[in-house]
Amino acid sequence: MPSLLSLLFAFVALISPSAVFAGPETSGSDVSGTAQQGLRDALAKRPHSPVIAVIALNDGTETTDFLVPYAVLKRAGIGTVQAVAVEAGEVTLMPALRIVPDTTLAAFDAQHPHGADIVIVPAMHTDDDPRVLRWLQQQAAHGAMIVGICSGARVLSQAGLLNGRRFTGHWYDRGDLRKANPTASYVPNVRYLHDDGVVTTTGVSASIPVSLALVEGIAGRDRALEVARWLGANDWSARHVSAGFELNARRLWTIASNAIAIWRHETLAIPAVDGIDDTSLALTADAWSRTWRTTVVATSTATSGRVRMASGLMLVTTPPVPSAARPLTLAPKRNAMTQFVQSLADIEQRYGPAERDIVSLAMEYVPAPN
């Protein structure tokens, strides 16, 4: 998610008549219908039991971009899925939560000297970390499919992996990505897009459809349908409507006023126990954090300060502090998408429709067709 400072710069650009976008654009109308099949075809040529690395930068990796693909692919039971951090130690997710990764880049390389089959790249706090860029370039050279989720496309761009390719990305990034990659073609109106071993997606909420598309391409449609029912997702096609995702004066005012009015901020505490669903937790924490009015933390009574999520990944928690935080409880039998949609409704009820709008904008969320 863009910082307050970057949003203020965006406001200046918004009212400036000189803003321009460089680089060609390809119409999405002739691509969206074939994007899902294109990814499926590319995956059909890869191992049916792949080695999949979901990479994380320790000091800042996007919450849903990271947790959803990891949890979905683990749920599907395909291949080897590892959470790979740049270095040892906890990973701070943004805008909320902390986790303990499975391994490090160095340890992964020692275990898999021929590289991964698929590498998933979330948005990162720093998109030009040289260790990440070097590793991605090496993985691409080994033949890995590189999947940039949301603003993970900025990391791929820094690694030179968008050059000469068609790509999509979070609506906020498209101008920067087009200017940085004049030989590439930006494609609107597609949720995800594969081109020559590189996959890019639109905003945060695209993590679910692209993860299901990966499951379908690796393990078949029946497995994807099974995982989709668990998630509560009824569509994972590449269809998307790019129009309407933009900053305007009203949205910028909502964000800026919320960020500045710190006396209105509150802390929300999600009680966490072993087996908590990664996907529901990620989407809920992400949505509430993007109101610019809340800090979301995971709490538990575990003496270790850690609980094991449904995927097997370790979540770092804090002790409950009832007097300092409002509880935000996940319904135990509610699937991830129902939980997310309910979170949007709860945000609107608590803070108003303008807040729900900026959350949907930040996560580039469009309700799936019935």
Multimeric organization: single chain
- DSSP helix fraction: 25-40%
Count of individual domains: 2
Number of strands: 17
Main structural class: alpha/beta
Rg over alpha carbons: 19 Å
* Whole-number mean pLDDT: 90
The CATH superfamily of the largest domain is Class I glutamine amidotransferase (GATase) domain
CATH architecture grouping of the largest domain: 3-Layer(aba) Sandwich
Detail the poorly predicted runs: 7-23
**What is the ordering of alpha helices and beta strands?**
HHEEHEEEEHEHEHEHEEEHHHEHEEEEHH
What share of residues are in beta strands? 15-25%
Individual helix count: 13
Largest sheet: 7 strands, mixed
Give, in spatial order, the strands making up the sheet with the most strands: 6-3-1-7-8-12-11
Shape: globular
**Euclidean distance between termini CA atoms:** 29 Å
Structure explained in plain terms:
The protein is an alpha/beta fold. The longest helix is centred in the C-terminal third of the chain and has 16 residues, at about 335-350. The radius of gyration is 19 Å and the shape is globular. The chain starts with a helix and ends in an 8-residue tail after the last helix. The protein has 2 domains: about 30-230, Rossmann fold, CATH 3.40.50.880; about 250-365, no CATH class. The strands form 4 sheets. The chain has a 7-stranded mixed sheet with strand order 6-3-1-7-8-12-11, with helices on both faces. Strands 2-4-5-16-15 form a 5-stranded mixed sheet. It is built from 13 helices and 17 strands. This is Isonitrile hydratase. It comes from Pandoraea pneumonica. It is an enzyme of class 4 (lyase). Its EC number is 4.2.1.103. Pfam families: DJ-1_PfpI (PF01965).
